[in-house]
Specification:
binds magnesium ion; 222 residues; binds adenosine-5'-triphosphate; 27% strand; four-stranded antiparallel sheet
Length: 222
């Protein structure tokens, strides 16, 4: 088992009332799975992904990741766990505007204390793989939305994470780029990487081996 969510609740207080973002959510993910999360806008898909990615906490329930009880971990330990195992492709790109494409890609490797020469080789490999060598010295604002998305995907993959979390990874890509990313995910998944993606596209969801449907913060069975 890679991760397990048990009876997760997440809420915000609004006008003295609890508004539930996640409601009694259970999910078990085996290593090597490729899961698609679907559901209407506002159903909690990004919230769930952020919880799985340890970027967001929750109010009730248990979260187990490998041998760790995430709900009981101190912030520092949790962020180490996250950095070691998880690559995140965000719905908004979260690129750092003050850094070039090259530097954005290098950032996660710096966090992981990868040596200089190795960093150079890994960044070069990603630039190559994503066909963006010519863009390496540009800043995010100098790229199209689709190109920014590609850089975001490349940055999430560069550390070779065990788990990839992707929130609408092809949302801003043209159909060819979108298909390329899905094919890349499929390849990585075949190599053993676990993938959880949020998508509105039936076609993209089909790349996964299992689809989870959310509605109003709950998992619905189909
Ligand atoms: N910090 C917050 N405070 C109050 N409400 C929040 C907060 N974060 C999220 N929500 C609400 O939780 C619900 C789920 O949001 P979420 O971003 O998870 O939806 P989503 O399924 O990813 O939608 P989309 O497909 O549009 O990206 C929304 O109604 C949103 O307004
Ligand atoms: Mg979302």
């Amino acid at each position: 088992m890679l991760l397990q969510l048990n009876n997760i609740f997440k809420w915000v207080q609004q006008g003295g009332q609890r508004v539930f973002l996640l409601k009694d959510l259970n999910l078990s993910v085996e290593e090597g799975e490729f899961i698609s999360i679907m559901g209407p806008s506002g159903s909690g898909k990004s919230t769930l992904l952020n919880v799985i990615g340890m970027l967001d906490g929750f109010d009730e329930g248990e979260y187990h990741f490998l041998d760790e009880s995430v709900h009981a971990l101190k912030e520092k330990h949790r962020s180490e766990l996250y950095k070691q195992y998880i690559g995140f492709v965000f719905q908004a790109y979260h690129l750092i505007d003050e850094l070039t494409v090259y530097e954005n890609l290098e950032m996660p490797l710096l966090y992981k204390k990868v040596s200089g020469s190795e960093r150079k080789a890994m960044v070069a490999d990603m630039l190559d793989r994503f066909n963006i060598v010519g863009k390496k010295d540009l800043f995010p604002t100098q790229l199209s939305g689709g190109q920014q998305q590609l850089v975001g995907v490349a940055r999430a993959l560069i550390t070779k994470p065990k788990l990839i979390l992707a929130d609408e990874p092809t949302g801003n890509l043209n159909s060819q780029q979108g298909e390329d990313i899905m094919e890349l995910f499929k390849e990585l998944n075949n190599e053993g990487v676990t993938i959880i993606q949020v998508t509105h596209s039936e076609k993209n969801a089909e790349y996964g081996s299992r689809i989870i449907h959310l509605l109003d913060g709950r998992k619905i069975e189909r």
